[in-house]
Design a protein that fits this description.
8 helices; alpha/beta; wnt signaling pathway; 11% strand; three-stranded mixed β-sheet; globular; single chain; signal; glycoprotein
Amino acid sequence: MRSSSYVLPLGVLTVLLLSQVCSGIKWLSLSHAPASLHINQTQHCKLLPGMVSSQAQLCRSNLELMQTIITAAREVKKTCQKTFSDMRWNCSSIDIPSDATKYPPDLDRGTREAAFVYALSAATISHTIARACTSGDLRLCSCGPIPAEIPEPGYRWGGCADNLHYGLIMGSKFSDAPMKMKRAGSHANKLMHLHNSEVGRQALRDALVMKCKCHGVSGSCSIRTCWRGLQDLREIAMDLKIKYLSATKVVHRPMGTRKQLVPKDIDIRPVRENELVYLQSSPDFCSQNDKQGAVGTQDSMYISFNIVPLCLC
């Protein structure tokens, strides 16, 4: 019989506690939670001290959701590392060791790498929640709504659509909570992270496509039952990778009555809603630089044909 109470191993508890004082993506440390961890009582939320107060409240009011969020944290790490497996920066820093005292610099600074991770994280948590609604893993939501428009002849709405609306609401409520706290780092970093998170969610909205199943005698497909479903997370990650490669460097400067992020070299226009932005340039990730979060590519030949400078290491 499974015990109703579970105590996190000291190493996992340590990284969650330390994540409170880091400006990185706090909830990603949940990827280290053991598979045997089942949050089925409100006091279990206290085992996850890396959460800010509003996240803890969400945990207590919706225990099922926390299991989905832990799944999402694991998906972010796996998808990021697979998407960047051909790059010098390969998301290895997302796999935060349990004895880490802080997040690696490439995630803790306002770099384009941090921009991608925030965007992917926001997209992944909403994607995972939306799919959990469809699969029946979350009792507080169900299939997405049937589209209002009338389908073409030979098509009909049916099936179970991914509940993107619920996924976006609950996903943003949880993942954006740390950046909306007063003591959440510099205003520039908060604006950058919130902007990039929204870019990730917009990429998710764009990934909602019509999917159909054929019906008919002998496979004639005389009628198609269709629903709105999300593309695979890997496709969304590749779209965000393209945005990463063309990300815009920004500065934090007064615009009207308050400071905003504006493109550094072309500040005559505002930041576009669909572009990733970053505040600090990245190292080339070829040579080891612990202060900037570059582990280096020593003893390997790496040729890259993107915007990152070519180097043989």
